[in-house]
Amino acid sequence: MFFNSITYLVFLVLSVALYWCLPLWARWWLCLGASIIFYGFWRIEFVFLIIFSAFVDYFVSLRIAGAATSKGRRSWLIVSLIINLGLLAYFKYTYFIADNVAFIGKAFGRDWQFSLGKIILPLGISFYTFVSLSYTIDIYRRVLGPVRDFKVYLTYVMFWPHMIAGPILRGHELINQILRGSRFRVSHIVAGVKAVVAGLFLKVGLADQLAPMVDDAFGMKPELLGGVDVWTMAFGFGLQIYFDFAGYSLIAIGSARLLGIHFPENFNWPYLAISPRDFWKGWHITLSSWVRDYLYLPLSGNSFRDSSRGGIDIVTDGVKSRNLSGGLTLPLFLSWFLMGLWHGASWNFALWGLWHATLIYMYRIAKNKFGWIPAGLQSMLGWCVTVSLVMLGWIPFRAADLADTLALYSKLFQFSRYRTLGFRENFYLIVFVFTAGMIGLYFLKKSRIAVLQNPWVRQTGEVIAVSTMLFIIFVFLKPVSQFIYFQF
Fold first, then answer.
1. Distance CA 50, CA 44 (A)
2. Residue 471: CB partners within 8 Å, gap ≥ 6?
3. 417/413 Cα distance (integer angstroms)
4. pLDDT tens by residue, the chain, 488 residues
5. Rounded CA gap, 217 and 246, in Å?
6. CA-wise closest residue to 165 among 280, 246, 277, 281
7. How far apart are CA 345 and CA 334, in angstroms?
8. What DSSP letter does each residue of 327-371 carry, written as one string?
9. What is the 3-state secondary structure of 399-449?
10. Distance between CA atoms of 301 and 304, rounded to whole angstroms?
11. How far is CA 358 from CA 234, 276, 335, 339, 355, in A?
12. Own/partner pairs, 63-72, CB within 8 angstroms, 24+ separation
């Protein structure tokens, strides 16, 4: 069941209406049952895989909490890691590993081909694995106590608004909300509806309109393209994936809010960032926060945080690591390399992760060397450099393979090819208009112009905006297309 479908909207309306009619104890069962139905619309058999994975962590968390020694607690944590990461490795990385083994064998004149059969990647396995792992690790760290009621824990893992593609919530951020419930408030419904409408608009009104042009562009042979084309492709896909995933996140946040449950924001104007670190404070915030707390900070020997907010906003730059040589540099590159592979079983994704690690590393080196430049000009130059390099980083994320990635990058340095335009004019125009519109909307939202601060003006503008988005959604909702992050 896709968020951008009539089926989901009917499902959501019925679930919300029934939820507020039920007593608190029955709402747990409704959320769990609705989540099973939601996931079962894709493949019902994989519901049992999620239940198994959840039961492992539920059982292990009780054993960790009850272990008398640190060795015992660590042993049970290792059990959880092996089972969760083992399932993820089997379903997501078996083909990738086999292909690389075959490649190495070929280099040595050996035939190391394997017949693996057909492995279907369970929808959202990367996300619910991270959710489950964070819970077990938090029990091990004594951040929270274990849940004694399995159905409550299973509801936390399977809660449909966040189980497929996030936001990635910690146990203490969601379980308590499920347990205590919320009183019905009209403000919940209003905020939820606005978020769902905005999310659907970003998906069907913007992302899906860019998608065919981006697909055609990346389907062309690199040798037919010029430098302007590569820049346009990079910005085009960068905008598409932003509108697509930010739209999904808003629908997820809005769906939960309709039930009185608050999710943290997952995107905060990332393409208006003035540095690579600022970008990761605004892009997929709950994932970058997860990587910060469960991978990067532990590897660098620094204290972890306990929040899905803030992204990579840390104050450890320049602090010498206590555990690893290389200070923060080795943990940075290792964390982002693994984050890249988490997104997909391909060296392209690993390159994308290393690209961002390099941007952050270079920013650390350069950030204190331009104090002589006025602050306003620094911000403008920082934004120009950041948005350009971030957009170019989407090339390996979207290109078919490393060969195409390198071929596309090479076009950037063939300056005689900048007069070559391989696409239809409307692609360049739409990418420019969408980029300019996003920038204009950001400054309008942040504007301190007195007339725009007037409540009546703001409310009138909001009504007009929501009405316009609803009309566009009505026009474009029929062709249902999958969200990009569903493949991860």
1. 11
2. none
3. 9
4. 788 889 999 999 999 999 999 998 899 899 999 999 999 988 888 999 999 999 999 999 999 999 999 999 999 999 999 999 999 999 999 999 999 999 899 888 888 887 888 899 999 999 999 999 999 999 999 989 999 999 999 999 999 999 998 899 999 999 999 888 889 999 999 999 999 999 999 999 999 999 999 999 999 999 999 999 999 999 999 999 999 999 999 999 999 999 999 999 999 999 999 999 999 999 999 999 999 999 999 988 877 888 888 887 554 444 444 443 446 789 999 999 999 999 999 999 999 999 999 999 999 888 878 777 888 888 999 999 999 999 999 999 999 999 999 999 999 999 988 888 988 889 999 999 999 999 999 988 887 777 777 888 888 888 999 999 999 999 888 767 778 776 66
5. 23
6. 246
7. 16
8. TTHHHHHHHHHHHHHHH-SSHHHHHHHHHHHHHHHHHHHHTTS-T
9. CCCHHHHHHHHHHCCCHHHHHCCCCCHHHHHHHHHHHHHHHHHHHHHHCCC
10. 9
11. 18, 10, 12, 14, 5
12. 64/136, 64/139, 64/140, 64/146, 65/139, 65/145, 65/146
3-class secondary-structure state, position 182: coil
Structure tokens at 237: 């896909």
Cα separation, 238 vs 439, in Å, equals 14
Here the tokens at position 417 are 């090819």
Contact 315, 297 (CB under 8 A): no
**One-letter amino acid identity for 381?**
L
Alpha carbon 57 to its chain centroid, in Å, reads: 23
Q: CA torsion angle for 453, 456, 462, 468 (degrees, to 10)?
A: -130
Which member of 162, 188, 284, 343 is catalytic? 343
Contact 251, 195 (CB under 8 A): yes
> Whose structure tokens read 């999620």?
50
Using a 10 angstrom Cβ sphere, with 0-12 exposed, 13-18 middle and 19 or more buried, the burial of residue 395 is buried
| Secondary structure of residue 201 in the 3-state scheme | helix
Q: How many C-beta atoms surround the C-beta of residue 82 within 10 A?
A: 12
Q: What tokens were used for 131?
A: 């959710």
Active-site annotation holds for 343: yes
Phi-psi region of 269 (alpha: psi -120 to 50; beta: other; left: phi over 0): left
Structure tokens at 266: 């997952």
Q: DSSP for 236-255?
A: HHHHHHHHHHHHHHHHHHHH
